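lol so apparently i was supposed to do this last week
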Amino acid sequence: MINIINKAITLNADTQVKQKAAVKQMQDLIADVSTWVKHKVLTNKDRANLEAKGYARDLVNNLVYLTERPSSQSSEDSHVTGFTIEAFDPSIYASDEIYQHFTNINHHKCCWCERKVASDGIISHFRPSYGRRENGQLQRLAYYKQAYNLDNLMFSCRECSEHYKSDRFPTIEKHQAKAHGIDDELPLLVNPYFEQPRDFVRFNPVTAEAYPFDLICQFYKDKFALNQVDIVTKLQSDIGNIPSINGCSDLDKEYQQWLKSSISAQVLSKGSTTIDVLGLNRPSLVRQRLEVCKQYRAIWLASNSEPSTPETNKIKQHLENIANAEAPELTFSALLIDALCYWQLDNNQDWDSDHQPTVKEEIAPLAISPLLRSSLIYIVLDNELSLKNKRRIIQLNNQDLLYSSTTGKCVFLPIDWNNDFSNVIKVHENNHTWETSFSELNASRATALSSLFANAEVWAEGNYCSIS
Ligand SMILES: [Zn+2]
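anyway here it is w/ zinc ion bound
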């Protein structure tokens, strides 16, 4: 990751008006329904009344209003309001004008992994607009007001955005009191548009793996009372000075010991959290970084061994620019800064060009679409609280067969995407029942998904707990 120069953009007047109107409508609508009682279900009659008050149909149809029973039995049912992803208009937050702006300032690179992104780049949200996941549950109200805020938008590849970051947004609260707004929270993810990522994440030039620079600086300050300049020199001059949580050198062991006694330093490390959430050391990505490193190593060696000519001088200047962070357009430019600084300090070092990722190969996290995450939920009717082998699933919009017509008491339960994803899904439609899966639903288009839930009863079969 590198710092992305966030040049100002003035949106056309029409887009600005649409943005403001959309946010105001959402705020007013939420305020309107916040006085409703717990366990009431949002019926289509309620939606019609809200629409009659002047709220936009797309917003009303994708409004979420329910009473959720948390996974932990000790907590009370909670009143939940918010919106599904369908309520947010991509023609406003990801218009051609905005897309063009972000691809330009990003040099067509993903803001997280720094790979070049062709047509599959997407405008994503730093603070997830439909809610953020905390301990497996979606906190819906969290950030809907940030959906159209330019400062909350980013340009990234689909893999980083949907497989890794998704709706994860770890924060700590500035004050002991529960956070009430974004001013009260400190995000634990680095925002490359407003911060210098190199203050938090740097790269080992030999393994091409990202390491939490902020955490390692803290370690050196605590244990060896070094200042920042000395720490940087130490880390750049010898990769043996970059301690690892998996290593077994004396320094590694000392670092691991320090981590155990400094849990708070680890929790507060933006570098560590960002590497973890974005999967910056996923083996496929590390392999691509190693490949680029190898190419530049060859160029660097050649430029040093060949006699000085206008051509080699030009290459040397280019390499110098990379080392000085003046080549942000390059793929993996942050890694190349660390690699060139390292090579320049000691060009005799033995560099293993066949290095392989040390992080274990792991299955990439499931990319569950924002549509599923924000709109599917279990509904448990009053007379079904003791059911253990199946759970009804609904889609939270005005089309859903059950959600739009239920008037009796019921509770809603979040879907445990990690544990329930492999459960069989049964669909009952037109007097016959057929099977599908979460994977198939995940791959469905929005219209197909809506049509399914509008016309059929859908449930998942599995080993569930009774909640009565
Ligand atoms: Zn990426």
